[in-house]
Amino acid sequence: MNGPLGLPRLHLRATDSTNERARELALAGAVHGTLVTADEQSAGRGRQGRTWIAPAGSAVLMSLVLREPPPLLPLAAAVAVCDAVGAPARVKWPNDVVLELADGRLAKLAGILVEARPGAGWAVLGIGINAALDTDELPDEIGPASERPAASLKLTPQQREPLLAGVLAALERRIAEDREGTLGAWRELDALCGRSVAWDGGSGTADGIDGEGRLKVLLDAGGSTALAAGEVHLRR
User: Fold this and answer.
1) CB-based burial of residue 79 (10 Å sphere; 0-12 exposed, 13-18 middle, 19+ buried)?
2) Which three-class secondary structure string do you get for 128-186?
3) What pTM was computed for the model?
4) Which of 192, 235, 185, 196 is nearest to 215 (CA)?
5) How far apart are CA 20 and CA 38, in angstroms?
């Protein structure tokens, strides 16, 4: 890999999805570090096929073309966002960035979506951070009273650009880090370890991650397992 992250940059006032635009650029041969940003998305994609809700001017919306990405890119990206945001941001497996509320709920501050083409040697890394979002205006399912609320840094729209610069700088460091460095940094920020969790097909107590980035769980019924993909939820 060579060249700084963020150059060249395509900024759009509005688009359907920065990941989709970055994917088109990658297929056309865009260099490592090519960045797509937008003020507003109409069809931003999240994990598990969800839509990322971000009113105009409320979020850092960015997608990077990365050539020869590291195997633990989703974990490294989550740690980099925490680096840029600072305490008390933490990570919820596999790569959400969250804030812990006083009642124990985890409020989602940022989401990360990696769409990779391993055979072609590239990936698109999409990051959305609720920088200036007014959470009181969100729909009930992700509003302040919901079980899975969204969080916001409560910045001004003008402060999104310095935050973007901080994320790019942190990504430069974290992507160059070795596997053990990434795993160690992620474990220090783990918001699930020791908590009761459930997922489609099981439940237990989160027990950190293994050397491949899989979530280790001590099962309620005894024994243990390691989850390689999917989504887990806190049990209250």
Assistant:
1) buried
2) EEECCCCHHHCCHHHCCCCCCCECCCCCCHHHHHHHHHHHHHHHHHHHCCCHHHHHHHH
3) 0.92
4) 192
5) 12
| Ordered alpha helix ranges (H), 72-147 | 73-85
Q: Which domains does the chain carry?
A: 9-188 (3.30.930.10), 196-234 (2.30.30)
Query: Exposed, middle or buried, 23 (CB in 10 Å: 0-12/13-18/19+)?
Result: buried
- Could you identify the residue written with the tokens 């899989």? 214
Both tokens of residue 80?
């980099």
Structure tokens at 125: 């890394």
What tens-digit pLDDT sequence spans the chain (236 residues)? Answer: 567 999 999 999 999 999 999 999 999 999 999 999 999 998 766 554 556 667 889 999 999 999 999 999 999 999 999 999 998 999 999 889 999 999 989 999 999 999 988 788 999 999 999 999 998 888 888 888 888 899 999 999 999 999 999 999 999 999 999 999 999 999 999 999 999 999 988 999 999 999 999 999 999 999 999 999 888 989 87
Element (DSSP H or E) covering residue 91: strand 90-92
Q: Which residue has the tokens 């974290």?
A: 174
